[in-house]
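Q: C-alpha cells for this one, please.
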Amino acid sequence: MSNNIRMLVVNDFDEASVELVTGSAVATLPVTNLQFYNNSRIFRVTSTEFVLKGDFTNIRLITALVLWRHNWTAAAKFRLELFGNADQTGSTVFDSGWVDALPQTTYGEWDWRLQPVVSSLLDGWATKYSQLWFGDVFASSYRLTVQDPLNESGQLDLTRIYMGRHYSPDVNFSWGSTFAFGSNETQQRTDDGGLFSNATATWRKVSFSLAYINEEDRPGLIAAIRHAKLSRDWFISLYPEEGTHKEIEHSFACKFTALPPVTSTSFNNSSTAVSVEEC
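A: Here is the predicted structure, written as C-alpha cells:
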C-alpha cells in the first residue's frame, strides 16, 4: 500500500447500525454519539473493556479505521473484525488481531533523558487517537473490541469512529505544505509592560497542493469534496504509517476551510490546493 497522503472522507460507520454488546454505557453518553460530530457528546463506558457490533447498510469496501479522541492508556489494545454477511456471520473477511491503541515511541525518536522506556508518540498531546490502515476488504458487518486493563479513570471514552474506504492519490502532495496551530487566544499589553493572555484550546491547520491528479484519481477527489463540503468531518493523514512524530502531527480529524477548486493544468492532469483545520 502506498504511503502517500490518505483522506478518509466517506464515513460508512455513520450509516451503519451500532450496538454495545459488552460494557456498561453511561445513559447520557450512548454509543450512538459516535455517529455524529460533537466533541462534547462522547461515548463512555464504566469498564475497562467494551465490544461494539453492527451492520453496514449494504456491502462496503473498507480500508481504514480511526478511533478519534479517547482517554486510553499505552496498555490499551483494540481488535477489528469484518464479516462477509450481516449479523457478524459468514466468513471473517478481515481480522486485525490485537493492535496497540497508541503508537509506541521508536528508538530513533526516544529521548532517554526525559521519557520512560515504554512511551507513546501521543504523550503530551491533549487528543489521543488510534488508526488502522489495510487493503481492500468488502464487508457487510463488523465487530470492534477494545481493552484497556490499566486505565485507572474508571471509564473509557471515545468521541468518534471513522470507518470506510480512504482516498490516496497516485502522486503525493507537492513540496511546500504548511503546518500551523490555530488558537482563539488574545493578548493584552498592560501599562507596566506586562503581556497577558487568555488560555484557550489550540487546533492544527494544514495546507498542501496536489499538483498531479491523473484521470483515474480525479473522480475520487471530486466525490470526496462533494461529499464533505464544509460541514462534514473526516480524517486526514499526510504521512501515514511512518511511525514518527511527523505522522502524529499531520494526522487528525478535520474539515475543509474552503472547498478546493480543481484546475485542469494539462492533458489528463488536474491540480488543487487544499486547506483543512482540526475539528
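A few notes: The radius of gyration is 20 Å. The domain at 10-164 is CATH 2.60.120.260 (Jelly Rolls).
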